[in-house]
Structure prediction request, 981 residues.
Amino acid sequence: MSSPAAPAVPRPRFVPNPATIIVVCAIGLVTLGLIVLFSASASFKQGPYFYLDKQLLGLVLATGTALVVSRLDLEQVRRYAWWIAGGTSLLLLLVLIPHVGISANGGRRWLGYGSVRFQVSEFAKLGMVFCLAHYLALNQSRSGEFQRGFVWPLAIVGVTSVLIQRENDFGAAALVGVVGLSLVFLAGARLRYFLPASALALTGFVALVLNNPLRLRRVMAFLDPEGTRLGAGYQNWQALLAFASGGTGGVGLGQGRQQQNFLPEAHTDMILAVVGEELGLWFTLGIVVVFVVIFITGLVHLRRAPNLFQFLLVAGCLLLLALQAIINLGVVTALLPNKGMPLPFISAGLSNLLLMGLLLGILINTQRTWPRPSLQRDGRALEELAG
Amino acid sequence: MILLAAGVLGAFATVGVRLVHLHVIDRDSLVHYLDRARHEIIVEKARRGDILDAHDDILATSHSLIVLGVDPQLLEKADESKWPELARLINVPLPELSRIFNTKTRPASAGDGTDEEGRIRWAKLSDSVEESVYDAVGKLGVKGVYGDRVYRRAYPHNQLAAHVIGYVNKEEEPVIGMERFADFYLRGVDGWRESEKDGQRHELAQFRTREVPASNGYAVVLSIDSAIQHMVEQELELIAGKFQPQKASIIVSDARSGFIYAMANYPTFDLNAYNALSKDGERAMRNAAVADILEPGSTFKIVAVSGALNEGLVTPETRFDCSLEKVDYKGVSRSLPREDHHFDAPLSVTEIISHSSNKGAAQLGMLLGEERLYGYARAYGFAEDTGLASIYPESPGMLANYTKWSGSDITRIPMGHTVAATPLQIHMAMGVIASGGVLLRPQLVREIRDDTGATVCRFGTVVRRRVISPQTAATMAQMLERVTYANEGTAPEAAIPNFEAAGKTGTTEKLIDGKYSTTHHISSFVGFFPASRPRLVISVIVDDGHPPQGGTAYGRLVAAPSFKHLGEQLIQYLDIKPVTTPVPGLLALGGARP
Prediction:
């Protein structure tokens, strides 16, 4: 801020810092999300404001979470890494117990009371990232070893992934697996361990899918959306129709028809299709571009990481966000088999918003605590940090 | 690191390209699916107009009813406890209801009501749910159960004037009667709206693009008077009970306008239960009064007599020898028909009518000659549609052209043999004399009204042609009055004191297997009153009646009493004033006044 009373001080050129850019992007997405959500859910039987109200509540909670997290001392929190790991595992187990976990849409994934429910796996994702970052950083010098640099990290990823998979949430399990493996890779695991393990994980995942008729049907539907448009591929097909209906310019806010009992989950996982129909190509492309901006900004931000733990933590957060967005966008546009995963910042859902609040909180936190870029111009290479 | 970043960015780029494809490039190939799934044209049924009688009493009307059905795909487990209540409300047995609810698919070949995968999307539960019951069903709120509003035709008076009104079948097609004839007015025009529906096939009213409201059908007001129709139908029941006929028809019309007050046949049927008729129900549905032909018999004598009078060939006092067996005609000796009585003294023309002499009628026919006799018969409307043809399948009757007559026809046709006519034709022929010499068109429709009650058009008297001069008609009326005179006419049973009942009996032997039967007769009395200024024409025609005391079913025994009985009731109902013979003294007094 410059003051007219002190003209001698040159007005500093405003350079937005990465966290600011990401927060602005997030606010943009959330705003668009609220508008489209209202349009998508206005005709629902619960009443026009039901989901809008819930989303606003989630927004308040998420904002609070982000503010709290942004003030924490991450190194202090790191001391409780194993408590966090134990806690999330316990919650994941709790969800599996009948009558404790709440079932819906073919999976038991929720804990909560009444209409306020939390999807534990959302937080388990972040918990896994936190623990993994902690462990990998702890064993930074032994990253090349088989046991310390590979087996144990993989175990952390594997336990979380399998527990989530037991909730019948294949997508989240796969996401956890991919993010976990990426972090292990970033931490410097040997490729000769890493590649076979990745191949094994992939094979295991494919085997699981083939053994599960529902997943298999979804894959088949993905391969032939038109042929299965009245059965397994119905949702995908309706989403494709929504994009076609929207065209370049969209049919206009509130004018979309696909959410009128044609497109299931129009307010959550399929919300991009509603954006596509009502607002058209420019807005859907815009959303993709905003995610790209968030990701690149995050990468730029990463260069300033002071230690491997924080580097891996932020990288994990970034990957969670980006991969979740990619899976959702891929599913809605029928590039990937149907998988229920919310679109970050936009889809309705408390858990999704809270997780995004946590991720943003960590980003703001690191923006605050990490050294300024100017102090970092001593040529410290990223590779150095990564070991 | 760079590898990972490149992978993520590559994935985002792929999504971007895919979006361009979906939004723009593949668009055209997908959009027609949308149209098919969303677009819908909803028909708004027009309400069919009412049929009213002359006093606006409703004879046929349309009730709105709900056809209730279910989409079994939308049923929810939670609603299962409501099924018994629903079954009770719509009066469907619970097992049947459960069966319909639980049948979710059917073979694709079954066709209607299923989607492309053979899932049933609509199964009928009940096709006649009242509005109030439908409200209760709506409150019960079983998901997937919904109804369509339709109009169902109802006939408040059941069998009253069944043949005149006709009915509309379940497919909404008018089948017979006025329903069919006046369908053009009654039907109305269905409205429609072009709109969109959602994934559960509910209309999205906010996306309605075009809307054309339904125009309801017009009401048709008949000349039928329910009260008179009721009297007539009761009379027919009396006849049926007393004489056990095959069939019988009664027609009552206004002598001056030709509008029909009542037209009924025995046997008849209930319009609300037309589909409950047995195999020979077809017979009960026939409007015999216009559709069936019979030999008119002696009632046809009015043609030859009035023709000869009108041509000035005879006067009422001209006498004919009615005991002759043979008469020379155009150089050939023709045998005259038999008589029921032997007349020793020559009969005047008046007596030929009042005694119903066959030989007399034959001689009058010969006096006219074939060409003129045929001409008069045609002028009276025989062998010609009465004009109700478009309403009911009508028979024009039979009367061969005179050039094709055999030698004996000139002696038989004047007494109504070898001629066939419908009861309505005979009725209208008698109407010529009652109306002062003109043949009127029989009419049933008084006016057409739109659904606000405003008159669209009104129908008036239609004179088809002048048949005989007013003087001849007046003379004929006086002669026909003598038919009901005691000790002179053939039908004193038809006499109504002070009301100058006039008419003609008919007793025809039925043609059975090509021979005239002596045990099966058609008995008729066709007449009008009062003779000096006729108000009503009444025909009573009974086919194959059997007097309880046995013997021949003469028109005077079977038909004439009904004419009188009806006439007396109608005098009361229509407040017809008795004919008072003018007292000369009073007239003179009146004339003396300044």
Confidence is low (pLDDT under 50) at residues 1-6, 374-383 of chain A. Chain A has 15 helices and three strands. Residues 18-371 of chain A form one domain. Strands of chain A lie at 102-104, 107-113, 116-119.
